[in-house]
Amino acid sequence: MLQKGMTLKEVQEHILKVDHHPELKLEVMLKLVEEVGELAVEVRKEAINGPTDTLLTNMKYELYDVLHFVAHIANIYNIDLEDAVIEKDAINAIRYKEKRN
Q: 85 φ, ψ to 5°?
């Protein structure tokens, strides 16, 4: 079970244990796109109506769903998300040096 304070690596390992279906990689990718769409709906509602506790809770849960399927895809391809984040952040630090300051 996920707990507060877990690292990204620990979250990814948990998702590997509870939901690993490499044979369904296309379906998992489509599920990620679906979850991003659901998050977009909640963000649009908040932009129109302003923040409410319900909207923010919905956004929080949709963000988890997106993270879940990102980790699931990473697990299918044996990609360590922690390494990916660190490597890509270093690339972005160089690429967007002026914009980051």
A: -65, -45
